[in-house]
Amino acid sequence: CRVYNYEPLTQLKNVRANCYGKYIALRGTVVRVSNIKPLCTNLAFVCATCGDVQGVPLPDGKYTLPTKCLVPECRGRSFTADRSSPLTTTVDWQSVKVQELMSDDQREAGRIPRTIECELVQDLVDSCVPGDMVTITGIVKVASTEEGEVHHLR
C-alpha cells in the first residue's frame, strides 16, 4: 500500500534525533540518484553439519549469520550462504539525495541547502531523476558513516 497526501510536511531542518523511527513526509528536489543495486532481504544458509537450509531475514541488508541449526538433533553452528536457494530473496534498491526547497530569503543568507539520503526499493526504484521536485514519505533511520551519523529516510 502507499500513503498519499500525508501531512504535516516536515522541514529538513527539523529532521533530528527525535524523528528517528517515525514516519514523516518532506518535500524537496532530487539532486542525485545512485545506480540500481540488488538488496538482499532474506539469505539462505546451509548447516555444515547436517545440510539443513534455513532462511535468515537481513534487516536493512545487513549480513547476519544464524546462531545455530534449527534441527533439534544437530544444533550445528557452522553455516555457508546459499545465494541460489529459493529462500534467498532480493529487491531492487536505489539511493537518492533530496535537497530542501529554499525560499528567497533563505537563499540570500548564503547558506548551503540541507540534503537527506532516501532509500527507494522495488517499484519506486528509477521513479525520479535529478531536478524532479518530489514529496517523500518514509521512516527516518540513522546510518553510521565515516563522517558520523547521517539521517536517512526509508
TrEMBL record:
Compartmental location: Nucleus
SUPFAM superfamilies: Nucleic acid-binding proteins
Domain of life the protein comes from: Eukaryota
GO molecular function: ATP binding; hydrolase activity; single-stranded DNA binding; single-stranded DNA helicase activity
InterPro entries linked to this entry: MCM, MCM_OB, NA-bd_OB-fold
Domain named MCM OB: residues: 12-142
Keywords: ATP-binding, DNA damage, DNA repair, DNA-binding, Helicase, Hydrolase, Nucleotide-binding, Nucleus
Gene giving rise to this polypeptide: Mcm8_0
Key word Membrane present: no
Keyword ATP-binding: yes
GO biological process per UniProt: double-strand break repair via homologous recombination
Organism for this UniProt entry: Atrichornis clamosus
Pfam families reported for this sequence: MCM_OB (PF17207)
Catalyzed reaction equations: ATP + H2O = ADP + phosphate + H(+)
Family assignment from sequence similarity: Belongs to the MCM family.
GO cellular component: MCM8-MCM9 complex; nucleus
Protein known as: DNA helicase MCM8
Record EC number: 3.6.4.12
Enzyme class: hydrolase
